[in-house]
Amino acid sequence: MSKIPLAGEGFRTEDETTKNKARFWKNAIISLIALSITAGIIAVIEYFALSGNDAFNLPLRLAGDAIGLSGILGFSAFVLGYVSSKGAFDLVSYSVKLVFLNVFRPKYRQENFPRTFYEYKVLKDHEKRRATFPLLWLSLIFLAVGIILIAIYMNQIH
Predict the structure, then answer these.
(1) What is the DSSP letter of 71?
(2) Domain span holding position 21
(3) Would 106 be classed as within a structural domain?
(4) CA–CA distances in Å: residue 93 to residues 9, 102, 108, 120
(5) What is the pLDDT of residues 101-112, one digit of tens each?
(6) Band of residue 1 on the pLDDT scale cut at 50, 70, 90
(7) pLDDT digits (tens, 9 = 90+) for 14-31
(8) How many domains does the chain have?
């Protein structure tokens, strides 16, 4: 059997490659904004929690905690998204959709909703589900920067 791929197999068109790059950068920008907002919220909460404390070099501690914690939360969100993209939560999503359809649309069987979980799973398996890998890389960067800032803060204290 020949190892030469058939037409359309194994080749990426320029348009598909540029779409993948555009999707990557769009996800990277969204992830960066989300992690930055999370870090800001954590910093504000920690600032008001430590406002009565006479801690040495408080801004460095706030920055390290906020950036490191947002990195941990981003990594956790990536793990959940990755597991979900592999189909781990399909039964839960089918069940929740079925409950809402039963409550709000009693005649949902007349719509195009699958009758069984097996049909739903077959439909879901044909969809192209992706995890957002820019979230992983940015979360690890945030986590590393947070660890470095906390290490600097601990060295200044002692």
Answers:
(1) H
(2) 17-86+129-157
(3) no
(4) 33, 14, 16, 10
(5) 888 877 766 667
(6) very low
(7) 677 888 888 889 999 999
(8) 1
